[in-house]
Design goal:
heterodimer; A: 589 residues; Enzyme I, Chain A, domain 2; 3 domains; 14% strand; disordered C terminus; B: 88 residues; alpha+beta; Histidine-containing Protein, Chain: A; 4-stranded antiparallel beta sheet; 3 helices; 35% helix
Chain lengths: 589, 88
């Protein structure tokens, strides 16, 4: 067998998710050669007119593209072409062209392309990425004008007989808009970035795309087999059989998943009799927001801030925290983000002090206890959250509250920080909501008085179970005693929900129980308002919520509350779940 | 002629979208309008010029206008900046 290099992997920037497998179609556009020509006398006015006509025709084309995209994707996406129109009609540039033609007596395309090149150079040399990406828009517009001047046809992507993967040095937004699903599987370009208009359009139109491949284009042969993975930004040239098989399987899986997701993401989580349950996501990194939204989360029910500490091996400063909180707030806006203040051992806050050995760290100096002892750390975090709250969609959640006193003390610190910010005239959300994690039995038992002093509860079942049953979750020998459906745990959950509602605050649940399909009907029946779980578990929980009636869930919850054997409760819930959602059923919902 | 000094207060600065908003707004007026940052002075009705200013958060700009509707022009453009281009 002849040796032939296979599986050459090119790494680019993932611009639009999805996997495409197919043959390459090279979009080879010759660079337009522009000649410098001296105008014969008396031709100057005519040349200016010719340039104006080219602008006018280019405008008509752009307006048409804009209408086309507005129909397909809505007016918001069509705004990309408003930017193109502004570039086209730029009075400074165009005046320079008129003057250039008059003074130098040279042809319009020569003068125009020289001015555009100069602008592109200036913008490319700034340090601002977002400006650099606008260069693609400027060249798309200028190519259009120059094509009109030279009487060339605007490049279009010819309809292909069999769908292919387009490989090009660069593509313009106009190219992407014209792509048809019947002939284009996806595309790869050597230039471009993640926030380029080309990338945004590819995402909206559902074409897998990898950009910024630098020098792939000259290396690909037309018709060569390719795999394009828009999720991780890879292009594989001439994949071997095993790789192909692997990717076909991957693609199939993605397709199935996105199908079920698509059916669900747009739908609200409400029971058949219209009781709405808010389904939100637990996340650790600002970048998890995308996964949360893809899976149909209606907000972030728990943002764990400990990663900030873990990621920087030191306490993150205010600016670092602010950036993280604000970026999440922006990404998820107008949905809500609940930010939980640091929930870790005090030794991590005071890392420079000698670390005290604690015999029972879970019962020790941690979370809100440590925060209240180290007001500088706590205040820095609260200040960062408040500063990031300008959009009005952040809430604060305090972990490990065990008494009213701790809640009031924490709120006092928050007030102090707010006062400081007001004095400095730094704006923040004055109405920011403050809630607590109910994860210690004493908090559940005192839920009534706590509810009178905060805006929401979120039940942290992992710790609540561990503290109620005095079972260390990490101890294998007693793992069987860690019972999520222990009647005592259920009673504490019920009391927390009831006391919250009595005081008109909402009650959510953000522990692992929120992602346990066996627990969903019971929790809905107990009256939970919100469930916050890992993004990937959201579609399944939503499916369950949408298939039940609130009334029947209440009946089931009442039945369960009468029982006093954890194993029996769990077994009944499991049977109930299987009965409702056996394989065939679960696919239909 | 009328002048007003303003600060860029939106977090991302005068990036592509705000630049477009400024140009669209400026183009509605008859007055000549300029944006000045340090030693650079550009036509506020030109998208390329405004983008090339690359004004980031915290930088100071002067809006200068002359012509019949100069005062409304300056006021309305200043307002865009003050309101952070509706971003925050």
């Amino acid at each position: 067998m002849k040796k032939f290099k296979k599986n050459i992997v090119w790494q680019g920037i993932p611009a639009s998710p999805g996997i495409a497998i197919g043959k390459a179609y090279l979009l080879d556009r010759e660079e337009i050669k522009i000649k410098e020509e001296k105008l014969p006398p008396g031709q100057i006015q005519k040349e200016i007119l010719r340039f104006k006509k080219a602008l006018h025709e280019a405008k008509k084309e752009i307006v048409k593209l804009k209408e086309n995209i507005a129909k397909k994707l809505g007016t918001e996406q069509a705004k990309i072409f408003d930017a193109h129109l502004l570039i086209l009609e730029d009075e400074v540039v165009n005046q320079q062209v008129f003057n250039g033609i008059k003074e130098e007596k040279k042809n319009a395309e020569f003068i125009y392309s020289r001015i555009i090149q100069k602008t592109i150079q200036t913008i490319s040399s700034t340090k601002y990425e977002y400006l650099k990406e606008r260069v693609a828009d400027i060249s798309a517009v200028s190519t259009r004008v120059i094509n009109r001047l030279l009487g060339l046809k605007q490049h279009t992507i010819e309809p292909l007989k069999t769908p292919r993967i387009i490989v090009a040095h660069s593509l313009s937004p106009g190219d992407v808009v014209q792509m048809k699903k019947e002939s284009v599987l996806g595309f790869a370009t050597d230039v471009g970035g993640k926030t380029s208009h080309v990338a945004l359009l590819a995402k909206s139109l559902g074409f897998p795309a990898v950009v910024g491949l630098k020098a792939l284009f000259p290396k690909v042969k037309s018709g060569e087999n390719l795999i394009l993975d828009g999720n991780i930004g890879e292009v594989i040239l001439s994949p071997d059989q095993a790789t192909l098989k692997n990717y076909e399987f991957k693609k199939e899986k993605l397709l199935k998943r996105s199908k079920t997701l698509l059916e669900l993401t747009g739908l609200v989580a409400e029971t058949k009799d219209k009781k709405k349950i808010e389904l939100s996501a637990n996340i650790e990194l600002p970048s998890d927001v995308e996964s949360a939204l893809e899976n149909g989360a209606e907000g972030i029910g728990l943002f764990r801030t400990e990663y900030l500490y873990l990621a920087s091996s030191d306490l993150p400063d205010e600016e670092e925290q602010y950036q993280a909180y604000f970026s999440i707030a922006q990404k998820i806006y107008p949905q809500r983000v609940i930010i939980r203040t640091f929930d870790m051992g005090g030794d991590k806050f005071a890392h420079d002090q000698e670390r005290d050995y604690e015999a029972n760290p879970f019962l020790g100096w941690r979370a809100i206890r440590a925060c209240l002892d180290l007001p500088d750390v706590f205040k820095t975090q609260l200040r960062a959250i408040l500063k990031a709250s300008q959009l009005g969609n952040l809430s604060i959640m305090l972990p490990m509250i065990s008494s009213l006193d701790e809640l009031l003390k924490s709120k006092k610190v928050l007030e102090e920080v707010k006062e400081e910010l007001r004095a400095k005239k730094i704006s923040f959300d004055e109405e920011i909501k403050v809630g607590i994690m109910v994860e210690i039995p004493s908090a559940a038992l005192e839920a009534d008085s706590l509810a009178k002093n905060c805006d929401f509860f979120s039940i942290g079942t992992n710790d609540l179970i561990q503290y109620t049953l005095a079972v260390d979750r990490t101890n294998e020998r007693i793992a069987h005693l860690y019972q999520s459906f222990h009647p005592s745990v259920l009673k504490l959950i019920k009391k927390t929900i009831d006391d919250g509602h009595k005081n008109n605050i909402w009650v959510g649940l953000c522990g692992e129980m929120a992602a346990d399909p066996k627990a969903t009907v019971l929790l809905v029946g107990l009256g939970i308002d919100e469930l916050s779980a890992s993004p990937l578990s959201i579609p399944q929980i939503k499916k369950i919520v949408r298939s039940i009636e609130f009334q029947e869930a209440r009946v089931l919850a009442e039945e369960m509350m009468k029982l006093n054997d954890a194993d029996q409760i769990e077994k009944l819930l499991e049977e109930d779940y299987l009965q409702r959602f056996n394989q065939e059923n679960s696919l239909k919902v | 002629m009328i002048e007003k000094k303003i600060e860029v207060v939106n977090r991302l600065g005068l990036h592509a979208r705000p630049a477009a908003l400024v140009v669209q707004k400026a183009s509605k007026f008859k007055a000549e309008i300029r944006l000045i940052k340090d030693e650079y002075e550009v036509n506020a009705k030109s998208i390329m010029s405004v983008m090339m200013l690359a004004a980031e958060m915290g930088s100071f700009l002067t809006i200068k206008a002359w012509g019949e509707d100069e005062s409304t022009a300056v006021e309305e453009i200043a307002k865009l900046f003050e309101e952070k281009f509706g971003e925050e």
